[in-house]
Amino acid sequence: MIGVGVDIGGTFVKLFVMNEHGEIFRKEKIETDYSKGAKGFITQIGDYINAIQKEFQDQQVAVAVGAPGDVDNQKGVLRYNPNLKFKDIANWPLAQLLYKHTGIMPCVANDATLAAWGVYEADLKHQGTNILVVTLGTGVGGGLILNKELYQGSNGTAGEIGHTKIADTATGPLCGCGARGCLEAFVGTIGIKRRVLEAVTDYPDSILAQLVAAEKDFKIEIVSRAAEKGCKTALKVWEDTGHYLGIGLANFTLVLDIDTIVLTGGVSGAAPYFLPAVKRVLAAQQIQTPFKRLKILVSQNPNIGGVGAAMYAIYRAKKDTLK
């Protein structure tokens, strides 16, 4: 059996083709093409899937699509997404559109949800029972494995840790979703950028300020480069990031009593700088039972969303066959 994983992002789409043994036959990263609109985008992805069907015509091909935003996993509809720039895609019926183009009904889920499956299958090798996977990038997403099964909740929105509130909803920083006080507004790259700009204004002679001034565009790596040089301002930015993230992780752990947290995404590369602060927050919780055996890991796979989508496509196809 062949699994095709499609990981849709606002800037790039990652496509993975794998078999049930975990062998990767294709992996591609293409720009999210807005020039031909939403219809042209569906045609582009559908044509890719059709090419894979033709190449592997002696095998069953299954497809899963990870989409950023609010996804109805039962109907395969992307209900809302602020980061995709296509017009008129509110309640976008991704599954039906791709089915019409390819003849395959794909699984459609939140991208962080499918990243969680990828972590569970590829990174953890099914170790752990209740797992939270947190994607740290422009946005902050979450996916859940509960009792060794992918958990998407009643409406497909389970795991939205980025939009849990850790600050006053009237005065906290504004999140991309339009609300205030979200975890994402503190530990997503936009939130980190905001705090960096505040820091370099306060400390204009810092190494961080010099690196920010020298770069045309802000990149999260700038903060890590400054931290590597021992810049106290950069180290404080990462310490604060860890503190805020620790609050969000503590809240989820207290509710769900999870045994493993795995961090993924671009910001997770700075874990050596912010994880100590995360652990201090967890250690300071009054109820310690759920934290005593909690493991916090960092995925080293930058393509875990696409890998997870391909693996989940195969898993679901096999499960449906057994029904």
Automatic annotation (TrEMBL):
<protein>
    <recommendedName>
        <fullName>Glucokinase</fullName>
    </recommendedName>
</protein>
<dbReference type="InterPro" id="IPR043129">
    <property type="entry name" value="ATPase_NBD"/>
</dbReference>
<comment type="similarity">
    <text>Belongs to the ROK (NagC/XylR) family.</text>
</comment>
<dbReference type="InterPro" id="IPR049874">
    <property type="entry name" value="ROK_cs"/>
</dbReference>
<dbReference type="InterPro" id="IPR000600">
    <property type="entry name" value="ROK"/>
</dbReference>
<dbReference type="Pfam" id="PF00480">
    <property type="entry name" value="ROK"/>
</dbReference>
